Amino acid sequence: MKICMLTSGHDVYDNRIYYKEILSLKKQYDDIYIVAPGDKDFVTEDGVIIKCFPKRKNWRDRFRPMKDMYNIAKTIGADVYHAHEPDSFQVAVKLKKNFGSKIIYDSHEYYPEAFSEHFPAIKGIMEKVIYNYEKVLAKKADCIITVNDILVNKFKKYHSNVILLPNYPVLKDEEMIKEYNPIPTFIYVGGLREDRGIYKILEAAKLINVNCKYIFVGPFESESFKSKCDEYIKNNLQDKDIIFTGKIPHTKVFDYLKTAHAGFVLLQPHNWRYVNAEPIKLFEYMITRTAVIGSDFPMVKAIVDPSGSGMVVKPDSPESIAKAINNLANDIEKTKTMGENGFNKVKKDYNWSLCESRLLEAYSLLR
Predict the structure, then answer these.
(1) pLDDT given for residue 89 in this prediction
(2) Close Cβ partners of 63 (under 8 Å, ≥ 6 residues apart)
(3) pLDDT in tens, 103-131
(4) From CA 102, how far away is CA 197, in angstroms rounded?
(5) Which residues, in sequence order, are CB contacts of 208 under 8 Å at separation 6+?
(6) At residue 200, does pLDDT exceed 80?
(7) Domain count, the chain
(8) Rounded mean pLDDT, 162-185
């Protein structure tokens, strides 16, 4: 079976697409392609053939990449085209119509809700338009793959073959051994944006009297937000141990996670998509034996509380965040136990090996 992944907006080495789905499929299928935005064609060290088209200039630049993707994909002649966005799935639908290929729609985002945010004045109208557009397309899929129960239930209303593949982490062959900093260390990993709770963490740090270290691993996503944080630190946190690493190689991230006692997952509550998400960052902390300070949203709470892997807080309340930091910093042994609890839970219930078998079974039914 020849397989071709289609993506209009994800990187070739996207964690879900490449390191989870493709490497799982490589265990049974040799002939795998990715058609994705990039600078040049190449073959990965795993033998996956990459075909590239120029990246889109902005979110409005949609039709030219779709045309490029179709022109490349039709030359591959795949048995299955596996698409990761509504745009790329529209290409897959055309390929099915013209060549009789099987097609998969892999929906890992709340696309109608996300796209409508570009049109704040008519957000509700646009959300309905995109929802109906996605519905018409998705009915033509041979299989729909998605990441949580909310999306599974949405698609099951009009499609009989819907597979749940959460974004669980891949278990490593070698488990991470912690090398804790001597003082309580709190970490955030990811893009630094206000809606990720970064500013709230800084405001909480001002309320903390315990000697703690704070590490922010990742790039600021705007200069204006960087300036806002720098100004707050200058005026309020000169006596705090705060490190911003900037963008660093993926392998270096684990050097910082090794030292951390707890990690922040503080998506802000103003966005419906955030409130109804299972952030991959949550599982990535857990798999590295790092206790969690998470938003008190239903999906996060349902993972953190039963597993005893951390604490949930009101993510827009510096006082609530500060209370959790104080609790964890003042009882390091309990915090380490939370980290161990999280690791054990991921190892048992929240890892990619559980999803891999479902993915391979879904493909076997498309032969």
Answers:
(1) 96
(2) none
(3) 999 998 888 898 888 888 898 898 998 88
(4) 42
(5) 240, 322, 325, 326, 329
(6) yes
(7) 2
(8) 91
Find the CATH number of the domain harbouring 141. Answer: 3.40.50.2000
Is the predicted pLDDT of residue 219 greater than 90, yes or no?
Answer: yes
Interacting residues of 90 by C-beta distance below 8 A, sequence separation 6+: 66, 137
If phi > 0 it is left, if psi is from -120 to 50 it is alpha, else beta; for residue 218 that is left
- 124 and 17 in a single domain? The answer is yes
pLDDT at residue 130 in the model:
87
- Please give the residue range of the domain that contains residue 310: 185-348
Q: How many DSSP H helices and E strands does the chain contain?
A: 15, 14
Q: Are the C-beta atoms of 104 and 3 separated by less than 8 Å?
A: no
How many other β-carbons are positioned within 10 Å of the β-carbon of residue 265? 27
pTM: 0.88
The answer to whether residue 262 sits within a structural domain is: yes
* Per-residue model confidence (pLDDT) at position 196: 96
Half-sphere exposure of 227 (CA within 13 A, CB side): 3
The single residue listed with the structure tokens 């209009």 is 8
Residue 71 lies in a domain: yes
With residue 51 as reference, give the H or E element that holds it.
strand 49-53
